[in-house]
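As a warm-up, study this chain.
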Amino acid sequence: MFIDEFEDIGAEVYKFAFEKDEAKKAELSGKFNSETLPRHLGYLEALLKENNGGKGYFVGDSLTWAGLGIANVYDLLGGTDAPFAKFPLLLALVKRVRENPKVAEYLKTRAQTPF
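Now compare it with the structure written out below.
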Protein backbone atom coordinates (compact mmCIF):
# COMPACT_ATOMS: atom_id res chain seq x y z
CA MET A 1 0.00 0.00 0.00
CA PHE A 2 2.66 2.55 1.01
CA ILE A 3 5.09 1.55 -1.69
CA ASP A 4 2.31 1.73 -4.29
CA GLU A 5 1.68 5.34 -3.27
CA PHE A 6 5.38 6.17 -3.58
CA GLU A 7 5.50 4.53 -7.00
CA ASP A 8 2.43 6.48 -8.10
CA ILE A 9 4.07 9.76 -7.05
CA GLY A 10 7.24 8.84 -8.94
CA ALA A 11 5.29 7.93 -12.07
CA GLU A 12 3.61 11.34 -12.00
CA VAL A 13 6.94 13.14 -11.55
CA TYR A 14 8.45 11.32 -14.49
CA LYS A 15 5.56 12.42 -16.70
CA PHE A 16 6.79 16.01 -16.57
CA ALA A 17 10.43 15.62 -15.59
CA PHE A 18 11.40 14.35 -19.03
CA GLU A 19 8.80 16.25 -21.06
CA LYS A 20 10.47 18.18 -23.89
CA ASP A 21 7.55 20.47 -24.70
CA GLU A 22 7.95 23.29 -22.15
CA ALA A 23 4.28 24.30 -22.23
CA LYS A 24 3.13 20.74 -21.59
CA LYS A 25 5.82 20.32 -18.93
CA ALA A 26 4.55 23.43 -17.11
CA GLU A 27 0.96 22.19 -17.36
CA LEU A 28 1.79 18.72 -16.02
CA SER A 29 4.02 20.09 -13.28
CA GLY A 30 1.39 22.60 -12.20
CA LYS A 31 -1.31 19.95 -11.96
CA PHE A 32 1.05 17.66 -10.07
CA ASN A 33 1.91 20.33 -7.51
CA SER A 34 -1.62 21.65 -7.05
CA GLU A 35 -3.67 18.44 -7.22
CA THR A 36 -1.82 15.15 -7.47
CA LEU A 37 0.90 15.58 -4.85
CA PRO A 38 -1.35 17.06 -2.15
CA ARG A 39 -3.81 14.18 -2.65
CA HIS A 40 -1.08 11.55 -2.24
CA LEU A 41 0.67 13.26 0.67
CA GLY A 42 -2.64 13.88 2.43
CA TYR A 43 -3.51 10.20 2.16
CA LEU A 44 -0.07 9.17 3.43
CA GLU A 45 -0.24 11.59 6.35
CA ALA A 46 -3.66 10.20 7.31
CA LEU A 47 -2.19 6.69 7.31
CA LEU A 48 0.77 7.86 9.38
CA LYS A 49 -1.60 9.39 11.97
CA GLU A 50 -3.17 5.97 12.47
CA ASN A 51 0.07 4.71 14.04
CA ASN A 52 0.91 6.45 17.32
CA GLY A 53 -0.75 9.69 16.21
CA GLY A 54 1.86 10.12 13.48
CA LYS A 55 4.72 10.55 15.91
CA GLY A 56 6.53 7.37 14.93
CA TYR A 57 6.61 5.44 11.71
CA PHE A 58 4.10 4.16 9.18
CA VAL A 59 4.32 0.64 10.59
CA GLY A 60 5.32 -0.37 14.10
CA ASP A 61 7.80 1.67 16.09
CA SER A 62 10.95 1.43 13.98
CA LEU A 63 12.27 2.15 10.53
CA THR A 64 10.80 0.02 7.76
CA TRP A 65 10.78 -0.05 3.98
CA ALA A 66 7.82 2.38 4.09
CA GLY A 67 9.88 4.95 6.00
CA LEU A 68 12.69 4.66 3.51
CA GLY A 69 10.14 5.05 0.74
CA ILE A 70 8.84 8.42 1.96
CA ALA A 71 12.43 9.62 2.38
CA ASN A 72 13.01 8.62 -1.23
CA VAL A 73 9.95 10.64 -2.29
CA TYR A 74 11.43 13.62 -0.42
CA ASP A 75 14.60 13.30 -2.49
CA LEU A 76 12.64 12.77 -5.70
CA LEU A 77 10.81 16.05 -5.04
CA GLY A 78 14.07 17.96 -4.80
CA GLY A 79 15.18 17.27 -1.26
CA THR A 80 13.46 20.36 0.14
CA ASP A 81 10.78 20.77 2.78
CA ALA A 82 8.47 22.88 0.59
CA PRO A 83 6.39 20.04 -0.91
CA PHE A 84 5.70 18.78 2.63
CA ALA A 85 4.79 22.18 4.11
CA LYS A 86 1.14 21.23 4.64
CA PHE A 87 2.05 17.76 5.92
CA PRO A 88 4.11 18.28 9.09
CA LEU A 89 3.84 14.69 10.31
CA LEU A 90 5.23 13.36 7.03
CA LEU A 91 8.03 15.90 7.08
CA ALA A 92 8.89 14.92 10.65
CA LEU A 93 8.97 11.27 9.58
CA VAL A 94 11.31 12.11 6.70
CA LYS A 95 13.61 13.88 9.18
CA ARG A 96 13.54 10.87 11.54
CA VAL A 97 14.45 8.55 8.69
CA ARG A 98 17.24 10.80 7.42
CA GLU A 99 18.63 11.13 10.95
CA ASN A 100 18.87 7.35 11.40
CA PRO A 101 22.65 6.79 11.81
CA LYS A 102 22.96 4.30 8.96
CA VAL A 103 20.77 6.33 6.62
CA ALA A 104 22.62 9.53 7.50
CA GLU A 105 25.96 7.86 6.73
CA TYR A 106 24.66 6.60 3.40
CA LEU A 107 23.34 10.06 2.49
CA LYS A 108 26.77 11.56 3.16
CA THR A 109 28.60 9.11 0.92
CA ARG A 110 26.17 8.27 -1.88
CA ALA A 111 26.78 9.33 -5.43
CA GLN A 112 24.89 12.44 -6.51
CA THR A 113 22.34 11.73 -9.21
CA PRO A 114 19.50 13.78 -10.71
CA PHE A 115 16.85 11.48 -9.18
